[in-house]
Design goal:
alpha/beta; three-stranded antiparallel sheet; 38% helix
C-alpha cells in the first residue's frame, strides 16, 4: 500500500465486510523498493496509522531519516523491518552450527542488530517515532534496552515463535519453521523473555504470514518465509503467564494496551469511552493445535499437534458477538 487510492480501498472494504476493524499501514517507499519516499502525507490524511516497508528493510539511511522526520510531524510510528541484506542475502535460517550441519545458508544475528543500531541513531537524530518489528536476538534486546535508558523514542515488538521455539524446529528441513528473521538459539529465546519481562519489548505481535501448502512443500531454500500465527498467538503467549514470565495484566498490556497506544488508537482498554472491542479468554482451557481446522487459509504452523492451555472463547467487535 504505497498510495492514497489503495488506502481508501482498504478502509472501505473493511467497513463493507464489517467483521473487524482494519487500520492500514502505508509503505515507507514507493513499491517498497527503498528508493523513493511514498506519498506519506497523503496516505496519513487518508487514514494510515503507521508506515512500514513490511518485510523489506529501508537500506538508505537518508530515506529512513526523512521517513522518521515525517513520523515526528504526523505523530505516527515508522515500523522497521531491521535486516542488513548485504549480510542476510540468500540466508534461510539462523547462522551457526546447525545451519552448517544442514547445509543451509545462515543469517547472522548481526544482520538484524546493525540496522536496529542505525535506526535508533536516526531516531535520536530526528526525534521521530521508531518501532522495531519482530525482535529475535539477544543483541537486539540489549541495544533497544540501552536506547530506552538514553531516552530515545523507540518501541519494540516480538512474536510468539521467537520466545516459544528455537532454530532446532528447522531440523528435518521443516519449512513451516522458516521465518524471517529466523528462529534463533536458546540464549536468544531467554533474552526475548527477559526483554518482555522488564519492558524493553513493548508488544507481542503475530507477524501473521499465511502461505498455501504447496508453497511450503517446496525445497527449504525455495519455500517462502512465514508462519500462520494469528490463531496460536494468544495461547502461546499465555504460556508466559503460566511460566511466571509475565502476569496476566502485563500480557494484556503487551497485546492490547501498548499496540493501541503506539498506533494512537482509542482501543486496548476497558475504560469508559474506549471502543468496545473485547476478547473473552478461558486461560485454563486446554486444546490441541490442529492446523487443518484453522480458519485462516494458511495452515503453515510449526505448532501443529502441540497441546496449549488458554484460548479465546468470545470476541466482541463493534458490539457484535462472535463465539
Amino acid at each position: 500500500n504505497d498510495n492514497s487510492s489503495v488506502t481508501d480501498f482498504i478502509i472501505r472494504k473493511a467497513i463493507q465486510e464489517g467483521a473487524c476493524t482494519v487500520y492500514p499501514i502505508g509503505a515507507i517507499t514507493k513499491g517498497q523498493k527503498g528508493e523513493e519516499l511514498a506519498e506519506m502525507g497523503i496516505m496519513y490524511s487518508e487514514g494510515c496509522v503507521a508506515f512500514s516497508d513490511d518485510g523489506k528493510p529501508v537500506m538508505s539511511s537518508l530515506i529512513m531519516r526523512r521517513a522518521l522526520e515525517y513520523s515526528k510531524a504526523f505523530k505516527v510510528p515508522i515500523i522497521s523491518h531491521c535486516e542488513d541484506i548485504g549480510l542476510s542475502e540468500g540466508g534461510v535460517m539462523n547462522e551457526g552450527l546447525l545451519s552448517l550441519t544442514l547445509g543451509l545458508k545462515g543469517i547472522p544475528s548481526e544482520a538484524e542488530e546493525i540496522i536496529i543500531s542505525r535506526d535508533i541513531a536516526l531516531a535520536n537524530l530526528t526525534k521521530g517515532r521508531l518501532h522495531i518489528a519482530h525482535v529475535s536476538t539477544e543483541g537486539s534486546v540489549r541495544i533497544i534496552r540501552e536506547a530506552k535508558e538514553r531516552g530515545i523514542n523507540v518501541t519494540a515488538e516480538t512474536c510468539p515463535h521467537y520466545f516459544s521455539i528455537t532454530e532446532k524446529a528447522v531440523e528435518g528441513y521443516n519449512t513451516n519453521a522458516k521465518v524471517n528473521p529466523p528462529l534463533r538459539t536458546d540464549k536468544d529465546v531467554n533474552a526475548i523473555k527477559q526483554g518482555l519481562k522488564d519492558g524493553t519489548i513493548d508488544v507481542i505481535a503475530t507477524d501473521h504470514a499465511p502461505h498455501h501448502r504447496d508453497e511450503k512443500l517446496r525445497e527449504f531454500d525455495q519455500a517462502p518465509s512465514g508462519i500462520s500465527g494469528l490463531e496460536t498467538a494468544l495461547s502461546l503467549s499465555l504460556r508466559l503467564v503460566h511460566e511466571g514470565v509475565l502476569t496476566m495484566p502485563q500480557l494484556v498490556e503487551k497485546m492490547t494496551v501498548n499496540p493501541a497506544k503506539i498506533l494512537g488508537l482509542n482501543k486496548g482498554t476497558l475504560k469508559a469511552g474506549s471502543d468496545a472491542d473485547i476478547v473473552m479468554v478461558d486461560a485454563n482451557k486446554e486444546f490441541k493445535v490442529e492446523a487443518e481446522r484453522f480458519v485462516s487459509k494458511g495452515r503453515n504452523t510449526p505448532f501443529d499437534g502441540l497441546i496449549l492451555k488458554g484460548m479465546p472463547v468470545v470476541t466482541i467487535c463493534k458490539g457484535k458477538i462472535y463465539e
